[in-house]
Amino acid sequence: MKALSCKQARVSLLVFLQLCMVTSVWAEEGKLSLGTNLLLQKQQSSSRQQLKSAGNQNTTVEDDIVGVIINVGEDLNFSDLAALDIEPGTQVGGVVTAQVPLSKLEILSRVKGVQLVSVGHRVKPVLTRVDTSIHADSVLQGWGALERSYTGKNVIVGVIDLGLDMTHPMFYNSDGSCRIIRVWNQNDKTGIKPQGFTYGSDYTPSVIAAKGSTDDGESHGTHVSGIAMGGGGKLGRYKGVAQGADLIFVQLRSRESDVLDGISYIFTIAKQLNRPAVVNLSLGFHYGPHDGTSSFDQGVDKLVGPGYIVVGAAGNEGNEKLHAQHTFSATAGEMRTAIVVDPTENTADMEVWAPADMDFSYAFELWRKKPLAKVGSTSFKTTQSSKGTYYADTTFTIGKSRVGIKYQSYSSAATPYYRGWLEASVTNPVDTGYKVVVALRATVGTVHMWNADGGEFVALGASAGGWVEGDNNVTVGEIGGTGKSVITVGAYNMRNGFCNIKDSCYYFVGETYEAASSFSSQGPTADGRQKPEVIAPGIVYSSVNSSDKSYSPTSKSSFVSAVEPDGKHYYAIMTGTSMATPAVTGSVALMLEANQTLDPGEIRTLLCNHAMLSDAIKQAPTSKRGSGIVNIYQTILHVSNRDSFPITPTVAPRAKETAAFIIAPNPNNGAFKVVTSGAEDLSISIYNLLGTRVYQAKIQPEQEVVLQRLPQGIYFVQATSGAKKGVRRMMVRK
Predict the structure, then answer these.
(1) pTM higher than 0.85, yes or no?
(2) Where are the domains of the chain?
């Protein structure tokens, strides 16, 4: 858990409190969010400062261009956008992305048919072989009951992230051919733009290796891509899941609209090649309704379909009380909670989301902690879903310290479930003896709030006043954790420590081996859906960027674990649901090779139905571990029309070169009989899911075999009778 405060200077005991409020109404029709307004305000202030510094009237100020997501109605005329020199990017249903100069945002919001313009927030990454823990190695080898191996061949793995090392051996075949087939660097202005988009450079295979790295200071994208589809390089130690799939990588610029464009880019190329694709989003934040109705989630819902899947990270806030909720009743119509500012960010961005039919009033208060007392307050303002946007800027002054609050009530028909929200951005006070509190009054109903910048919510009082303590429920993040058509992934600890290249070993404090990761965010979503669906390893070794100087054997970093024979490319450990997500992305690629028509709902059902639950994982609530650990071997057996879990034994087909036998009982506790129609003695071999033989013997028909020390799990029994052989699956339960 992050610290709630840092050591700060004391202010005089004589506290002078001054409350000033300047209010203005922006965007009367409620089409610009607080984030958009704040960005405009910042740009205007910066422009004035530049002109003042220049000291003459001939100075021009650059008009920044930002990516936006626009919710539009059927009455939008795209020629109205063209008249503003705004060229649409991704267009799906009622969602459009575009690159828009800041100076045109307010004009754009007035265009007929435009329901919502959102610049959005900057997307952040949510930080031994992974394939064995989810039994992908058995699938890659075509072991057991599978007729053939599955490697993700002819499937495209798309990764939208930061920092791909395009020279790393992890992404090359043994013959030297590259498995990276396209890269869109959204930050590169020097090359040819991708078709249908107005920014970035599109790298084709002829230039990919020569480009080196998409971001020399980042390794996240290299690590994630390696887990999803890396071949292990010449070292061969840290292989990914879909080792036969090809990679399309998008070097992310910054915002949600850029992510949506990236998904569209990947799927467009995949369709041109007539190949299925799965996109990995190890990204996220906590701005938005968390109910699957954000503009971004609506766009993803329109882009995915049979053979085109998106997998996202749950987030790493499972230990943080960044969420709070309160249900108002007819007799209890008031609540309040203190907004704790993350000292590393110096600000707290808070959002309150309410149902469409709820009107609520809000105020911001300043409270002294000892003795507990309210020392200042704004007046209560009412937000209604039909009244558009109200914006205010408030400053509390405590001695020489200032607490700035910018807040806005907002509504839009573009969000069908939650139409009204309250956003606030709070500057960190110097004196930690005071806390900023949000107070709400409302009619009957439930509101949710998130402290989106890494802070938490705390209850200062325990009696009157309706104080609410924050919690870690509904902490799955936007982008990867809330979408209705996104497969969301949490993390568990395949290990709780690691050893680096210098053989120095470390352990992660607070993380239990084979248990659900404490940091993994948990559901449900605000509208009650279970997220995450499944979990996968979250502490993983994989490739890192050779251009990233923080990862090298000579650096101070303790995380480098191995180096390629060329001495230039490295492997290291990273932690987070960012690492768990590509393990599932690679698993989905294997599924799509087996059946490229699977849609998001079918993928979700298959992964959940065949997930594993160990005793340690069972200790975690479903809201954190979902259905359990991904078991891609069992899933592929089902996808390839070979259900791997017969509860009652069945006789094998009587085919030539096949021994007909059954195992009874099955499941069993390690004691069983092999029943056959013949009278000949049998030779049996028992293998675990890793392909290791754990028992071998010659037995008579219907002779009882007792293996008391055989651990609980799934095994394959191979029986040989003369020239005939057969294989049956066996479940041991204890």
Answers:
(1) no
(2) 17-23+320-458, 34-46+64-118, 124-317+478-639, 661-732
